[in-house]
Amino acid sequence: MEERVVFPWIRSRNTSVSAHQTIRALQLEHGDAIDHLLEIDAHAQRGLVESGSDPRARAAVATLHQFERRLCEHIHVESNALFPRVLEEGLARR
After folding, report:
1. pLDDT per residue over 11-65, tens digit each?
2. Cα distance between residue 67 and residue 72, in whole Å
3. Full-model pTM
4. Which terminus of the chain has a smaller tally of CB atoms within 10 A, N or C?
């Protein structure tokens, strides 16, 4: 959604009051994604405990943790750099 809708919208500099609503929706989506990851991680950790030292289980959990780190970096950049900048620029143009 971001690549197809949000980023082109931001690039168009068409920021308005709806920017707040759009960005808030994305922030809520980020929160949902983190909640889902925490749930998946809890299941993965239980599976790892149950599987003992199965190298495939350990590799799967390691891959999951790498994905978690990348998603958290993505969310951090958007929430702490991109979104505030878009809102600032939108407010400055009014």
Report:
1. 776 655 477 777 888 888 899 999 999 999 888 888 777 776 788 888 888 898 8
2. 9
3. 0.72
4. C
